[in-house]
Design a protein that fits this description.
alpha+beta; five-stranded antiparallel beta sheet; 8 helices
């Protein structure tokens, strides 16, 4: 009986955390460095259609990361938050075996609530194998608390250089080997968004499909949609067109701000691009 109750609680928490955009599968990372010289790690989604960062991991939480992510490094490669493509072009993006994390809301910002790193929840099969390899390399390697591997305290391990890694396809983020009896698959949010009959249903499905970077909560989808097409209503063509517009706005704005443009200018540029995408989809 107790196990059944715990399984039910786990399912409820998973649904809630997923709906609020707090559970992510990670498939890559970039080393960053603050203006004060503090190193941090930028985590990126395992899904290739998600291009922007998930969250930064700062000094106090680096020990929670899996051991195949070296944390004793000389410095970072950026102060910004490059997209996957930008990081790959610069040669600073590191592929890694997929692992699942949870995040939580921080302080309010102009872009919505700040997303903060919480814990590593579980590892893919490839990540577990990589950890086994890390354990076999000697005491200089560090482990992950989230994976059941404690990092030694005191920082006695040797610093590790960041060797360039060739991009490889990340392992499937929801490998069956990791899914216990209480784990549930996600619905097809694109299909739900295209078939939504109300604005509320569309906004939720669109958020679950597009969440990342700019869209940290459903309200951000709603505000962006209303700013792009005031008075918009769900429909056979309008749903797909709005999905295109929301994706274009997210990608163009984050790209513009990543190049150093001011938020107002980035918004205006992204809005023009999004409206172009919307009109093209409506007319097709």
């Amino acid at each position: 009986m107790m196990n059944e109750q715990l399984d039910r609680i786990e399912k409820m928490l998973q649904v809630q955390l997923r709906s609020e955009g707090h559970i992510w599968w990670i498939g890559g990372y970039v080393y960053g460095q603050t203006s004060n010289g503090d190193v941090f790690v930028i985590l990126y989604p395992a899904a290739e259609n998600l291009k922007e960062k998930v969250v930064r991991v700062y000094d106090r939480d680096l020990k929670k990361l899996p051991a195949f992510i070296a944390v004793d490094v000389d410095g970072g490669d950026t102060e910004a938050n490059p997209s996957k493509e930008q990081a790959r072009k610069k040669g600073i993006y590191h592929e890694c075996p997929a692992f699942e994390i949870c995040t939580f809301d921080g302080k309010d910002t102009q872009m919505g609530k700040e997303r903060r790193f919480g814990e590593v929840l579980r590892l893919s099969k490839a990540a577990r194998e990589a950890l086994s390899g890390a354990r076999g390399k000697g005491a200089g390697e560090k482990g992950s608390r989230g994976a059941g591997e404690m990092r030694p305290e005191g920082g006695q391990g040797q610093q590790q250089a960041r060797a360039p890694q060739r991009p490889t396809s990340p392992p499937p983020p929801d490998e069956p080997a990791d899914d216990g009896p209480g784990m549930m698959g996600l619905p097809d949010y694109r299909k739900l968004a295209l078939e939504a009959k109300t604005a509320e249903a569309f906004d939720y499905a669109a958020f679950m499909l597009l969440r990342n970077g700019l869209y940290t909560e459903v309200e951000r989808i709603t505000k962006t949609r209303e700013a792009l097409v005031p008075g918009w209503k769900p429909g056979e063509k309008s749903n797909g067109a709005m999905l295109e517009a929301l994706a274009a706005y997210r990608d163009k704005r984050t790209g513009a701000e990543g190049r150093g443009e001011a938020p107002t200018a980035a918004h205006q540029f992204a809005k023009r691009e999004a409206m172009g995408a919307y009109n093209k989809a409506i007319q097709s």
